Amino acid sequence: MIEEKDLIKVICHYIYSKWIVNAQSQRDFASIHEIEESTVRRIKNIALGTAKEDYNMSLKTLSKICKKQEISLEEFFKLIKQ
């Protein structure tokens, strides 16, 4: 079974590489997904391996992102499993 820290990296990498990089800006992504811009920066830093601290993304944040991407949490976890 994958460790929690590694799961967060996989989640952040997927969100960053599939959705954040395609947004007009980090601020725009944050606004559209109703999350803080600092959260988007944390996701980016975890995804790129440049984070100075751990990040434990909340289920609420992940749910907001998935909702705006029009996928369920179940679909999201199937995507990152691939």
The biggest beta sheet, please? none
Strand content: under 5%
Which stretches of 5+ consecutive residues score pLDDT under 50? none
- Could you report the average pLDDT, rounded to the nearest whole number? 93
What is the radius of gyration? 12 Å
Chart the SSEs and their pairings.
Blueprint: H1 4-20, H2 26-33, H3 37-48, H4 59-68, H5 73-81
Commentary on this structure:
It is built from five helices and no strands. With 82 residues, it is an all-alpha fold.
Provide the descriptors you would attach to this structure in a database record.
5 helices; 82 residues
Question: Briefly, what is this?
Answer:
The protein is mostly helical and 82 residues long. Helix content is 68%, strand content 0%.
